[in-house]
Specification:
Elements: E1 2-8, H1 11-26, E2 30-37, H2 49-55, E3 59-63, H3 72-93, E4 97-101, H4 105-116, E5 121-124, H5 133-143, E6 147-150, H6 153-161, E7 169-171, H7 180-183, H8 188-195, E8 203-207, H9 218-231, E9 235-239, H10 247-259, E10 264-266, H11 271-280, E11 283-286, H12 289-293, E12 302-305, E13 318-321, H13 327-336, H14 351-361
Parallel strand pairs: 1-2, 1-4, 2-3, 4-5, 5-6, 6-7, 8-9, 8-11, 9-10, 11-12, 12-13
C-alpha cells in the first residue's frame, strides 16, 4: 500500500481538499496520514484542527508554531519551525509521497523538508499566477515538487515552460469544486434567519485577507470595502482574515464594524455554511481565491479587490476593482447585473477521482536522486 502524507495549515486548504482526502482514505491502494500546523491550531482562528479530528481522517502529528503579532518576520520564523517539525515527523512516518496544495508557507516548508529526506512531492494548484508574494511561493513549491496536479491547461503550459517535465504535469481541475453544489445545504432564508438579516434585502459575503507588501494599508482597505457596502445598504456576512502580516488591522476594523451592527462577523464558517452563503448572496467581495475559483459554480457575481488575485485566470462572474476607490461602483454594477451561468474554467467537479488514480498509479521508482529541469 502506498503511503500518502497530506500537509494542511489552514481552514481553506483543508476545505478544498476534504472530498479528495476522503477518497484517498477510502482507496484500497493508498494509506493516508495528515500533518496539521499553522492556523488550524490557533484559538483566535477557531481551532479548525477540531474539524479535521471530527472528520475521522487519520492525523499523524500536529506541528505547532510560536504565537505572536502577525508580521512578515513571524511568518518567516514559522517557516523555519515548520521545516524542523515536518522533518522530524516525516523522518518517522516515512511516506512514499507528500501531497501539498497551493501557495502558503506551510506547503513550502513541507516541500523543503520532503526533498531533503528524498521523499517525492506532488503539488496541487501549481502554475497559477497572482502577482504577489503568493506567486513566488507557489512557483518555489513547484520547483521542489516532482509531480503536478494543476487546475487548468493554462497552468500546465506555464509549468512546462518553467522546465517541468510534460509527463509529470496533469490537468485535473480544482479539487475545491468537487461536491460543491451538494455542500450548499442551507437556503437564503435559513441563512438570513441565523444572523437576523432580511432575506428580501441585498446580501454580500466578504472575505478579505491582507497582502504582505501592503500590510500597513490593510486596515484602511478593509474599512473602505465595508464603507462601500454600508453606503449601498448591503447586509454583509464577513469572515475574519488569515494570520498573515496585516491581519490584526483587518480584524480590528471588522470587529469594530460588527459591534456597530454594520456587518455580521464570523471567526470561521464551517465549509457547508460558507459554501451556502456563497451560493445564496447577491455578491461576494474581497480578495479570496474562493471568489475566483469556486463562486462561478453558483453563478454568484464577485467583486475582486486589489492585487492579491491579480493575474489569476478569471471566470465570467468576476469583476475587478484594482483599488478600493473603485469598490462602490463595481459592487453596484454587480448587484444590478445578472447571475452567471455556472460554467467554471477550473474544472468539472471530478478532480479528486483523477488525483486518487494518479496517486495510485504514478511511477515512484525513478524518484531517487536530484530533480532536473528540462528546459
Amino acid at each position: 500500500m502506498r503511503r500518502i502524507c497530506y500537509i494542511t495549515g489552514t481552514r481553506a486548504d483543508f476545505g478544498l481538499m476534504r472530498s479528495t482526502l476522503d477518497l484517498i482514505h477510502r482507496s484500497k491502494a493508498l494509506d493516508l496520514s495528515i500533518l496539521i500546523t499553522g492556523m488550524h491550531l490557533s484559538r483566535e482562528h477557531g481551532y479548525t484542527a477540531g474539524e479535521i479530528e471530527a472528520s475521522g481522517l487519520p492525523i499523524f502529528r500536529t506541528i505547532p508554531v510560536a504565537a505572536g503579532v502577525p508580521s512578515g518576520a513571524l511568518m518567516a520564523k514559522h517557516l523555519g519551525e515548520m521545516v524542523i517539525g515536518f522533518t522530524d515527523a516525516l523522518s518517522e512516518l516515512k511516506p512514499d509521497l507528500v501531497l501539498v496544495l497551493g501557495d502558503r508557507g506551510e506547503m513550502l516548508a513541507g516541500a523543503l523538508a520532503s526533498v531533503h529526506l528524498n521523499i517525492p512531492v506532488a503539488h496541487i494548484h501549481g502554475g497559477e499566477r497572482s502577482g504577489t508574494v503568493d506567486e513566488s511561493i507557489r512557483h518555489a513549491i513547484s520547483k521542489f515538487s516532482h509531480f503536478h496536479f494543476v487546475a487548468t491547461n493554462e497552468s500546465r503550459t506555464r509549468l512546462v515552460r518553467m522546465g517541468e517535465r510534460e509527463d509529470r504535469v496533469w490537468t485535473v481541475g480544482a479539487p475545491g469544486l468537487d461536491g460543491l453544489r451538494e455542500l450548499a445545504t442551507l437556503d437564503r432564508e435559513a441563512l438570513c434567519c441565523s444572523v437576523g438579516f432580511n432575506p428580501e434585502g441585498s446580501l454580500a459575503l466578504l472575505v478579505y485577507h491582507p497582502v504582505i507588501q501592503e500590510a500597513e494599508q490593510s486596515g484602511a482597505y478593509a474599512a473602505a470595502i465595508v464603507d462601500a457596502l454600508v453606503r449601498l445598504g448591503v447586509q454583509t456576512v464577513a469572515v475574519k482574515p488569515n494570520s498573515d502580516a496585516g491581519s490584526l488591522a483587518v480584524r480590528s476594523v471588522l470587529e469594530d464594524r460588527a459591534r456597530a451592527k454594520q456587518i455580521h462577523l464570523a471567526i470561521h464558517l464551517p465549509r457547508p455554511e460558507f459554501i451556502s452563503w456563497m451560493a445564496a448572496v447577491d455578491v461576494m467581495t474581497g480578495n479570496s481565491s474562493s471568489g475566483i475559483i469556486e463562486a462561478a459554480t453558483f453563478g454568484t457575481p464577485v467583486v475582486n479587490i486589489g492585487s492579491r488575485q491579480n493575474l489569476r485566470e478569471r471566470n465570467a462572474n468576476v469583476a475587478d476593482a484594482m483599488n478600493v476607490g473603485e469598490t462602490g461602483t463595481a459592487l453596484l454594477r454587480a448587484l444590478k447585473g445578472p447571475r452567471f451561468d455556472g460554467r467554471n474554467v477550473y474544472g468539472d467537479g471530478k478532480s479528486g477521482l483523477r488525483i486518487v488514480k494518479l496517486l495510485e498509479e504514478i511511477d515512484l521508482t525513478q524518484m531517487t536522486g536530484a530533480k532536473a529541469n528540462v528546459y
